[in-house]
Specification:
CATH topology of the largest domain in chain A: BirA Bifunctional Protein, domain 2
CATH superfamily of the largest domain in chain A: Bira Bifunctional Protein, Domain 2
Oligomer: homodimer
Strand content of chain A: 15-25%
Structural class of chain A: alpha+beta
Radius of gyration of chain A: 28 Å
């Protein structure tokens, strides 16, 4: 049986070949270093969770439209996680009384969402999650935003490339209440605000009319969205002062259009977008003071963000800011001259590895030397070691630099220096 | 809404708190380094695959009893991968004609099996997969076994602790054919051999009688299993000669009881067990020359192994060979003396981080200093920096060594040296 269709991943899933994984590892290593520099410890949790964990707070779109659901053999409803925040919060809730606050954890994990695959949007993606748990002041909000800014800096994205658009749900609630929008009307209105940039002014207005806002309210709302001033929100004012002290104000902008679809946010919300490419949100986050409580136990304030790998890698590619990476670790190919000399090449490979030099041994007894050299050349292996009868007799080894073509004989002791130069 | 049961992961799933993840990362980093030293590149693939990918060859138990299955919204049958080899082989098949052979890839990934959770057996585990693709000689089999041995060495497991039990399915087929066991009878017999160690001699014999083996055949089979000599298999003889040259013979033993349940193995098979703890298999592998072909395209020989994280960590724990790890990266807590001095502590934290010193800033404006010191002490943060009005005026900082209790004032420039000593 041979079935060519079996060689493809499922729709929207991603195969990471060495050159692809090298990029993701580069990205996440950079971000991991930033998180560590702020004292964040790394955790991990299961890719499968109870359906109820997400149903509790993740919001209708994520749960009912985008989640991969399954039943285990005992009939329990499970979900493939569409985001990491519920798992993270559950792990806090589980050990709530033993943990030490303020708690700084970060997490890297695979998530799945059933979306239409297109550029910058696969169904299978990886997320970086970072939260500061147990801090309720603006200082905590500022810290996670600074980490996000340092994370952008670390991969070469400047305020020319990306903008952090920041808002506060508490401020929105107060401001909209002032123009008579509250309760169910508030929820309906913020849903429209969330879609504001995807629809025209007319569509927005008629949407507001449909939920029975008066023309006066619609006028006031539009003025608020166009000309609101963060000075009116003490929380936002304080936050922006801190962002200034941290030196990251150039990345940041107050924006009353940022609401975010996820249900569990309770205060500051933010989203990062690229400035010129029109891609989807690069990352998003906010304050979620009630989520840990939802999963059992007392209220613990928390603020943080999640950044996916897909959009940011697409952005870096378009801006030509992806580094040139060499996934191949091999420095030397130890060739096999003839079956009876295999042991000698084997010993050489062991010796090189024990000196910290990644070495491949050609795994055939009688392959032609030409074939082995061609393999090294195609693969991009920088050095080839040849051990023929002459070399073995003289206890030497011939080293060929595959870039220059230069060939030298050296002792075993001289080998390392030759390869490292 | 607050639901305590929501704080638990699903049955058999694993939460990796910082101290748990540190262990897994330590283990996989050690193994990754070994793989790299042999020139292996790292790949990754999706945790969800088409059901058919596993149905093709993974064997009845894995597919029909242990796999988590789901349907996507278009009604396609998917599976949460119970092992990594099918994904790995699929990725080879997909690019079969562009890839350069011999191909050396390794992979670390999450896998799920619906098993009864118990010690050393969770439903949610991580595997290290490593294969050499495109080499059909014993030299390739030897290479992956050497890598496995180096991987054991790297984490402190010696031939006193673990044994690699090695067999060859080709040799088994020949030997059993000699005593008239072939075709369906061969499959039935090897299934019993696979279970031999879990049942008594009587149960084994009556199992053989049930599949209609004669008493003479049963006698011959038992003699073969007890006293077979690898000298009778040229392949195994050659392999063990190579293992000797690699210096890893002390780890290795020929064992005709090793058959392995997975359908796709075609030659050498092996399994590693601990010697004294009676745990499950630590890792297993073998040659699978037909699997890539199953997923489309031509035949490409391959040999390799997969090692899970659960059993090996349990083994290391029992042998007291797990290292002491410190998941907390923080070196310094920058305390906040008073709201008006928050900016000074903020600047200090930025400066320390820019010098490569992981630093936490206490994220509250008015927390008592005592509370902050207590936090640092409970958390195990080695140094605390205090910036009061006096320090700020003199442009100094007070550093407290939390281990010794010693307190010193220093300039900003002198800080780094003080912390690193």
């Amino acid at each position: 049986m041979s079935d060519k269709s079996l060689s493809q991943p499922i729709r929207g899933a991603r195969d990471f070949y060495p050159e692809d994984l090298a990029v993701r590892n580069w990205l996440f290593d950079k971000w991991r270093d930033v998180a560590k520099s702020f004292g964040y410890e790394e955790i991990d949790g299961p890719v499968l969770e109870s359906f109820d964990l997400f149903a509790a707070k993740s919001g209708d779109e994520l749960v009912n439209q985008q989640m991969y659901m399954l039943e285990d053999k005992d009939g329990r409803k499970l979900g493939v996680r569409p985001e990491l925040t519920p798992t993270y919060s559950r792990m806090v809730a589980k050990r709530q009384n033993e943990l030490i606050y303020p708690l700084r954890w970060t997490m890297f994990g695979n998530t799945w969402r059933y979306e239409k695959p297109q550029t910058g949007r696969s169904r299978d993606f990886w997320q970086w999650e970072l939260n500061l748990v147990g801090g309720e002041e603006s200082t905590a909000d500022a810290e996670v935003l600074v980490i996000a800014a340092k994370a952008m800096e670390a991969i070469g994205l400047t305020p020319e490339d990306v903008v952090f658009r920041i808002n506060d749900r508490r401020f929105m609630q107060e401001s909209l209440t002032e123009i008579g929008i509250s309760g169910l009307l508030y929820d309906q209105t913020t849903k429209l605000i969330d879609r504001r940039e995807k629809i025209s002014q007319d569509e927005f207005n008629s949407g507001l009319q449909n939920i029975s806002l008066t023309n006066d309210q619609i006028g006031q709302l539009n003025s608020f969205l166009q000309a609101s001033d963060l000075e009116k929100s003490p929380k936002l004012k304080e936050l922006f002062l801190l962002l200034d002290r941290y030196g990251i104000l150039p990345y940041c902008r107050f924006d009353p259009l940022i609401i975010r679809g996820i249900t569990y946010y309770t205060g500051t919300v933010f989203e990062c977008f690229d400035k010129n490419q029109g891609l989807r949100s690069v990352f998003g986050g906010g304050r979620f003071d009630d989520l840990v409580k939802t999963f059992g136990g007392g209220k613990i304030p928390a603020v943080g963000f999640a950044a996916g790998d897909v959009v940011i890698i697409e952005l870096l590619r378009r801006l030509d800011k992806l580094p040139k990476l060499t996934p191949l670790p091999t420095r030397v190919l130890a060739t096999v001259f003839s079956p009876d000399l295999f042991s000698d090449s084997l010993s050489l490979s062991l010796s090189l590895r024990s000196q910290g030099i990644p070495t491949e041994l050609y795994p055939e007894l009688s392959a032609k030397l030409d074939k082995q050299l061609k393999y090294a050349s195609r693969k991009g292996i920088p050095y080839v070691a040849i051990l023929g009868p002459e070399e073995v007799e003289k206890k030497l080894v011939t080293i060929k630099n595959m870039q220059t073509g230069e060939q030298k004989q050296t002792t075993m002791e001289g080998l390392k220096a030759l390869i490292e130069n």
